[in-house]
From TrEMBL:
Membrane topology: Multi-pass membrane protein
Protein name: Major facilitator superfamily transporter
Ranges for domain Major facilitator superfamily (MFS) profile: 9-483
Upper classification of the organism: Bacteria, Bacillati, Bacillota, Bacilli, Lactobacillales
Transmembrane segments: 12-35, 41-62, 74-93, 99-124, 136-156, 162-183, 195-215, 221-242, 263-282, 294-315, 327-347, 353-372, 461-478
Cellular component, GO, one term: plasma membrane
Matches recorded under PROSITE patterns: MFS (PS50850)
Length: 485
């Protein structure tokens, strides 16, 4: 491929990351209108969960199919699924249709999210790969900022259905550019596809993620959770034995013996769990515990995204002067500093510290994530890049899901204790305290106690986050220095 072909192909792949990132955030501002129109508030959480679930479990399958049939064909197929499901979501007449379409969109997003990083690893040298990875992460971060704002604009001017329809022209242009400019001297794998392993892994992870989804509810159905976890355990054990005998396993078990790879996977597991904490709970801290408006609470994460973009763009200069290990250590120090801002944040403290914490988190994530993402591909053999990338994506998602579920359990425990200890407090009032429009429905004498309960729950979460970062720092400290490729 010549310079122009590489440039245009990379731009198309960048738009792929941007679209997947937007889809994860743009829907947040459309949900109230969707629920009102389709009468499905009881199923609201599944609109988001099913998308993430299917995107996660299909990642390893997409990479294995790409080894067999080619990156170009599979990326285009995944993108077409994404576009077709966008049309179906926009035309949805009930919640069942919407959720099924979201599941199909998640399958397509699995290819659009993961295959670009595999393509970077196969086509580019180490320096080009780092630059492409930095740009992809920046695009995803920009989407996190723009998504809610763009979603609100579209819903207010065109209606919620256009949140999905807008994907269609953008996606078709992206596919056309990629199809025209991307060429790869592809040599298909002649090994049999591991369909048994694919099915067992997908089913096992689906049951596991369903268990986590139910675990995070205010009143979890313990028997349902136990049955899902038991089923997931049986399926994943069967997956292990199938992979041991497979000619071309979906995830080679040898990867788990690669200490350098697993160290990076574990660090990303922890930091993506931490990312889930601050991206989901900082706005609630500002609005529910500190009494900030919804507008101010929505702005709390903006410094994080802006600093993430800035820090990723500075990485090439930093790498010229410092080792990657020291840069990652510095990133974790920023995350630690940001979390300490929360740990020492008193009840009804200054909301500006939340903005400072968010900025620190953005710098930390921007310094660590691109380096570890590239190193995952550098510490394995070229033939293992696809499988290693898929495994890493899966571990990142599991880290996010597991930590969020653990934090949901912690919050629900705090709230349940408060409701039990004070008959004037209820879950309904705890929901209303975070909604400025519902504040007038709360007796004035209960406002401060309710805010303290929210603060107490959030403070516990900041301590969990502190533990995550300290463990990640320790792993990085003990890990051997990674030399540049």
């Amino acid at each position: 491929m010549n310079t122009l072909q590489i440039k245009r192909s990379s731009q198309a792949l960048l738009f792929s990351n941007l679209m997947v990132g937007l889809e994860g955030t743009i829907i947040a501002t459309a949900l109230p209108a969707m629920m009102a129109n389709l009468h499905g508030i009881a199923l609201m959480s599944w609109v988001i969960a099913i998308y993430i679930l299917m995107m996660s479990v299909t990642g390893p399958i997409w990479t294995k199919l790409a080894d067999r049939y080619g990156y170009k064909k599979l990326f285009i197929l995944g993108s077409l699924l994404f576009i077709a499901s966008s049309l179906a979501e926009g035309l949805a007449v009930n919640m069942t249709m919407l959720i099924i379409a979201r599941a199909i969109m998640g399958i397509g997003a699995g290819a659009m999210q993961l295959l670009p990083f595999v393509i970077y690893g196969v086509l580019f040298d180490a320096e080009q790969r780092r630059k492409a990875t930095n740009n992809a992460i920046s695009a995803y971060s920009i989407a996190a900022v723009v998504g809610p704002l763009l979603g609100g604009l579209i819903v207010s001017s065109l209606g919620w259905r256009w949140v999905f329809f807008i994907n269609i022209p953008i996606g078709l242009i992206m596919i056309a550019v990629f199809a025209h400019y991307f060429f790869h001297d592809f040599k298909p794998s002649i090994k049999a596809i591991d369909f048994a392993g694919s099915g067992l892994l997908s089913a096992g992870l689906i049951f596991f993620m369903l268990a986590l989804q139910f675990l995070g509810q205010a009143q979890p159905a313990l028997m349902t959770i136990f049955s899902f976890l038991a089923t997931a355990l049986v399926l994943l054990i069967l997956f292990y034995f199938v992979e041991r005998r497979a000619t071309d396993p979906l995830i080679p078990l040898e990867l788990f013996k690669n200490r350098a790879l697993m160290a990076r996977n574990l660090m990303m597991f922890l930091q993506y769990g931490f990312f889930g904490f601050y991206s989901n709970y900082l706005p609630t801290w500002g609005q529910g515990a500190l009494g900030q408006s919804a507008f101010v609470a929505g702005l709390i994460l903006v410094p994080s995204s802006l600093m993430l973009v800035l820090s990723t763009q500075l990485l090439s200069r930093l790498r010229a002067r410092f080792s990657e290990k020291n840069i990652v250590s510095t990133g974790y120090v920023f995350m630690l500093a940001g979390d300490l801002c929360l740990v020492f944040q008193g009840f009804m403290g200054n909301a500006s510290w939340l903005f400072v914490a968010a900025a620190c988190f953005g710098v930390g994530f921007g310094l660590t994530n691109p380096i570890l993402q590239v190193q995952v591909q550098e510490v394995v053999a070229p033939a293992e890049i696809g499988a290693a990338t898929a495994l890493n994506a899966l571990i990142r998602t599991l880290g996010n899901a597991l930590v969020l579920s653990a934090m949901s359990v912690s919050l629900n425990s705090t709230f349940s204790s408060a409701v039990h200890d004070n008959h004037q407090i209820s879950f309904d009032l705890l929901n209303k305290i975070s909604d400025a429009h519902a504040l007038h429905q709360i007796p004035r004498v209960l406002v401060e106690p309710l805010r303290y309960i929210i603060y107490h729950g959030m403070h516990k979460l900041s301590l969990i986050g502190l533990c995550l970062i300290i463990v990640a720092m320790l792993i990085n400290f003990l890990d051997k220095e990674k030399k540049h490729a």
